[in-house]
Specification:
The chain has one domain: GTP cyclohydrolase I, C-terminal domain/NADPH-dependent 7-cyano-7-deazaguanine reductase, N-terminal domain (GTP Cyclohydrolase I, domain 2), CATH 3.30.1130. About 25% of the residues lie in helices and about 35% in strands. The chain has 3 helices and 5 strands, in the order βαβαβαββ.
Length: about 120
């Protein structure tokens, strides 16, 4: 059986609230962030199966991200993004992961400011 290209899981617009920033107001109040996540993995088993054990469980990954983000404090958007990326590529099946985190209303005339980080095996 020939190997297929990796499957791509996308989690789009995961809206969370966390402490992010360095100003007094940011340290005292949770802010809205939006996370977009892309994970690649070889889904050879899952393509012909109905068994969850044969697939990368995006729900488990997303729950871990929510737990980390909502129960932590971050000074830097880069650190928050790296923490999310670390969770996204924690499974040994993952061959590539990319995370973008938007901090909403970070600048006066912009919808958001975002940081993107990626990892490849």
């Amino acid at each position: 059986m020939s190997s297929q290209p990796d499957a791509i899981i996308r989690v789009k617009n995961l809206r969370l609230r966390t402490f992010i920033g360095i100003k007094e107001e940011e340290i005292a109040n949770r802010q809205d962030i939006v996370i977009n996540l892309q994970i690649h993995y070889p889904a050879d088993k899952a393509r012909n199966s109905e068994n969850i054990a044969d697939a990368l469980n995006y729900r488990t990954i997303t729950k871990a991200i929510i737990q980390r983000v909502e129960n932590s404090r971050f000074a830097l958007l880069e650190k928050l993004t790296q923490d999310v990326l670390d969770i996204a590529c924690d499974n040994p099946w993952v061959t590539y992961a990319e995370v973008e985190v938007d901090k909403l209303h970070a600048l006066r005339y912009a919808d958001s400011v975002s940081i993107s980080l990626r990892w490849q095996k």
